[in-house]
Amino acid sequence: MALETPLRSVVIDMGSNSFRLVAYDYVPERWWRRSDEIYDGVRIGAGLLAHGTLAPERMGRALEVMDVYAHFCLASGIPLSEVTPVATSAIREAANGADFVASVKALTKLQVRILSADEEAYYTYLAAVNSTTLSEGAVLDLGGGSLELVRVGARRALATASWPLGTVRMTEQFFADKRSTSKQCAALRAHTLRELKQATWLEQLGGGIVGIGGTVRNLAAAAEHAAGRPAFGVQGYSLARDMLGELIEELARHSAATRAEIAGIKPERAGVILAGAVVIAAAMDAAGAGELEATEAGLREGVFFSSFLAASAADAGNEPPLFPDVRKASVLNLARQYQSELAHPEHVAALAGELWRSLINIGAAPASDLDAAELVWAAGILHDIGMAINYDDHHKHSRYLVLAAGLPGFNQREQALIAQTVRYHRKGTPELGELASLCLPGDDQLLLRMSAVLALAEHLDRSRDGTIDVAGVRNAGESLELELQVARSGDEVLARWGAERQGDVFLRAFGRPLTVA
């Protein structure tokens, strides 16, 4: 069965600092992915604080960019009905914002939707809650023109607030002379804290904070580099408040022109990143938050999710368009992109789960391993996605795809363990390798156990016909004995042959060899 032919749509995020076109491939109610992206540092909000209008030169630049975006859509065969341009705070607040939107339509035929502050907050909420496990806490979205906070409870948006604290605006207000003294940083911090007192719920927030936007992503990337962590994206990275303070000090030591020399800081954001860092740090302090979780999703994903998940939301009685389980959804989303049928990986994942639980139940594995059961399931679902590249070394290809695509909802340690388990489901001695710095003490042994169980489960369904219905392990003196339940019409010879070859693997992982009942 061939992979489904995807549909395509585009969201254009017309932010105060930058414009970004993102194209999505998707199969309704099956899977989605970003398939193209064009970024431009338009700075449409530059000068808005002083004059209250969009500057003519900024509008001219923005019109050129929107014309390019329109030509991209035309050349890509994406109809205007599948293109959603949205404008945020700078265009919303400018006295001539509506005139600019009219000029865009006249030039490109693109109908720009100017989002209200509440709509902007709503779409960032959808992006954050659909890409993390945030259930209680807040979403922080810092753009060029404004800061939005959304209070979240039971995964629902409970309250929203918006302040004119965007990076472009605050840079012009507090760092207009291009200097970055500690006095200026302190003044911006004090100003931000005064503004945030309007959100009386912030002090009693509880839960975590998820950060969205280019400033958050840049700061998280810089923190990763500073900590010497492997860089495969910032999804799920926790930016500690102490580390953010150190970054602010380093950014302040640089001029705007040299901040891009700091690893992780993009040149197009170097001029406004310090103001953004100070505002985020103040917001974390106001909420009493010691860390902020970064997500690579943005407002544009929120806009996309609002349509991609519309049918399932309607079926649920007009609930917000949310994935019921973000972790499960992200694993299946990646699997469906590269596999037309999931019968084999789903059966391997089920067998691996049965083996995992039985090993814990008989004391062959520590009780704490129960916390990794979902990671074993995820590795089972994803272990063969590398076959889409080539059978040879497909375990290595699968690892690459897991790390490159990312798994929203899983933190970076969990993603590393899933990727390495996938990598070693066929051959080799499992090791954390370059991902060790993402992991905890004892994770090297956990990886041995996860890889052994996945390799065994794969062998039990080597025939890909579901012959082995149920698998478990029991204590048998100095060994572990594998017990199998076979489908009535099945032939278990191949499964037994494969299982018998796992004795040494289990000896290394569990301290006892495996025998087959």
Helical region count? 20
Largest sheet: spatial strand order: 8-7-6-9-11-10
Strand content: 15-25%
Shape: elongated
Structural class: alpha/beta
* Assembly context of the chains: single chain
Terminal residue distance: 36 Å
What is the tally of beta strands? 14
Helix fraction?
40-55%
The main β sheet shows up as: 6 strands, mixed
Rg of Cα set: 25 Å
Uncertain runs with pLDDT below 50, 5 residues or more?
none
Mean pLDDT: 93
What does this structure look like?
The protein has 517 residues and is an alpha/beta fold. Helices cover 45% and strands 17% of the residues. It is built from 20 helices and 14 strands. It has helices at residues 48-51, 56-75, 89-93, 97-108, 117-129, 167-174, 182-196, 214-226, 241-253, 273-287, 299-308, 310-315, 326-338, 343-361, 373-382, 394-405, 412-423, 443-460, 493-500, 503-510, and strands spanning 7-14, 19-27, 31-40, 83-87, 113-114, 137-142, 147-153, 156-163, 208-212, 238-240, 291-294, 468-476, 479-486, 514-516. The protein has a 6-stranded mixed β-sheet, sandwiched between helices. A 5-stranded mixed β-sheet has the order 3-2-1-4-5, sandwiched between helices. Helix 15 packs across helix 17 (412-423) and helix 17 packs across helix 18 (443-460). The two termini are 36 Å apart.
Would you spell out the secondary-structure blueprint of this structure?
Layout: E1 7-14, E2 19-27, E3 31-40, H1 48-51, H2 56-75, E4 83-87, H3 89-93, H4 97-108, E5 113-114, H5 117-129, E6 137-142, E7 147-153, E8 156-163, H6 167-174, H7 182-196, E9 208-212, H8 214-226, E10 238-240, H9 241-253, H10 273-287, E11 291-294, H11 299-308, H12 310-315, H13 326-338, H14 343-361, H15 373-382, H16 394-405, H17 412-423, H18 443-460, E12 468-476, E13 479-486, H19 493-500, H20 503-510, E14 514-516
Parallel strand pairs: 1-4, 4-5, 6-9, 9-11, 13-14
Antiparallel strand pairs: 1-2, 2-3, 6-7, 7-8, 10-11, 12-13
